[in-house]
Write a sequence for this structure.
């Protein structure tokens, strides 16, 4: 019977050792295996990585050394090579990325502030933060015992916002006043969709940097006699990678949603916003009031969400120049407190009962339906990467009700309210 031939691998050579069967194989030490393999192959042994190799030094006598020094140029001194690698000088590469548009804007605000010469995106951001402070301070005076909770948040891609919310107060069941600043990148499908309304957008790019800034407000009073109110004004801009504006537009509006209709409240609210519009264009109010009635409509109910106000979107250079539209938005924002504070002040302490409270809950259910199903602002916010959901859904009331097959009693205040919601009225 043939003997076994165990195979060992070392330093790239195969080594066989013949052993009789039935004997224990005693392992060869690594040095023995390496030398044995090298002798069989007539090859010099391969150095192991961890062995320090000593360079060969030729013998030189004093006489021959002197003659060598005279005839041979000196050899440059080289750092000794270490075993297992090749010497190379250490190189340090400082790789830095260019600052983002958001970072550059932050630096500009910190170093120079915001002036009339600043880009419009920075001026709009400054405006909405200023108005947020004014509105929150005025609402806080109505109910000093219930403080607004103020949350400041940031987005990884740039921007952030401030959310000011009051809940379960004496005047408001829920009141929210939010600012939001968003930096991001539009993909190709979004660019193509926006070009329908904005020809200034470059059609030949696969992505575009964008900036969005907005102030959004929703107030849900405790008292059913006091109306809910909504406000939103915003600015949108697309840019190249250097931050140069490519296309821009403004949007926004404000609208009133009463639970019980008081004609004097409706007239006062609409007159305030009409006066702000007339400072810039007498055609704005009727045009934007009609737009508002159409936008805040609940198709599956066949009724409007409230009694309207104004609404506009996509106002760009084809409407008026940027400075004129910015001034228009400023005046609309400034008209809010004079238009709403007198209404909430005279309604917040009126008496009410269970019937009025249940009707309020039903109408708030309609408010929720519109916001979650039809509102473009809510949809845009929820579909924006990194969006702050709590701030977006701030617009929803704390409580609402859905009563199966509810019908308003004929001749009641509830029936009159429904009639106006189904057939809008020109209040001024």
């Amino acid at each position: 019977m043939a003997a076994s031939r165990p195979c060992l691998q070392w330093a790239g050579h195969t080594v066989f050792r013949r052993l009789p069967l039935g004997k224990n194989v005693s392992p060869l030490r690594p040095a023995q295996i390496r030398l044995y393999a090298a002798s069989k192959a007539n090859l010099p042994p391969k150095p192991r990585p961890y062995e320090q190799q000593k360079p060969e030094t030729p013998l030189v006598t004093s006489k021959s050394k002197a003659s060598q020094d005279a005839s041979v140029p000196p050899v440059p001194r080289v750092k000794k090579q270490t075993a297992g690698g090749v010497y190379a000088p250490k190189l340090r590469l400082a790789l830095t990325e260019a600052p983002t548009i958001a970072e550059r804007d932050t630096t500009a605000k910190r170093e120079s502030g915001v002036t009339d010469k600043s880009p419009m995106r920075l001026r709009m951001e400054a405006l909405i933060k200023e108005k947020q402070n004014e509105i929150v301070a005025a609402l806080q005076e109505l109910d000093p015992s219930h403080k607004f909770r103020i949350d400041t948040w940031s987005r990884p891609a740039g921007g952030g916002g401030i959310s000011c919310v009051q809940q379960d107060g004496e005047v408001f069941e829920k009141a929210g006043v939010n600012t939001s600043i968003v930096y991001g990148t539009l993909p190709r499908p979004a660019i193509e969709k926006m070009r329908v309304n904005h020809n200034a957008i470059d059609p030949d790019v696969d992505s575009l940097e964008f900036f969005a800034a907005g102030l959004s407000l929703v107030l849900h009073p405790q008292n059913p006699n006091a109306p809910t109110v909504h406000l939103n004004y915003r600015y949108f801009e697309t840019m190249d990678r250097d931050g140069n504006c490519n296309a821009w537009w403004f949007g926004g509006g404000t609208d009133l949603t009463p639970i019980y209709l008081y004609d004097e409240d409706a007239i006062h609210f609409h007159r305030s916003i009409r006066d702000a519009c007339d400072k810039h264009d007498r055609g704005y109010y009727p045009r934007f009031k009609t737009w508002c009635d159409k936008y805040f409509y609940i198709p599956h109910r066949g009724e409007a969400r409230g009694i309207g106000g104004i609404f506009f979107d996509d106002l760009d250079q084809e409407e008026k120049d940027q400075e004129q539209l910015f001034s228009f938005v400023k005046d609309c924002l400034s008209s809010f407190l004079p238009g709403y504070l007198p209404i909430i002040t005279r309604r917040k302490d009126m008496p009410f009962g269970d019937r009025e409270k249940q009707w309020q809950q039903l109408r708030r259910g309609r408010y929720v339906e519109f916001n979650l199903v039809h509102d473009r602002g809510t949809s845009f916010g929820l579909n924006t990467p990194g969006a702050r959901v709590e701030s977006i859904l701030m617009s929803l009331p704390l409580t609402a009700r859905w009563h199966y097959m509810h019908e308003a009693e004929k001749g009641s205040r509830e029936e009159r309210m429904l009639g106006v919601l189904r057939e809008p009225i020109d209040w001024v």
User: Anything to note?
Assistant: The mean pLDDT is 84.
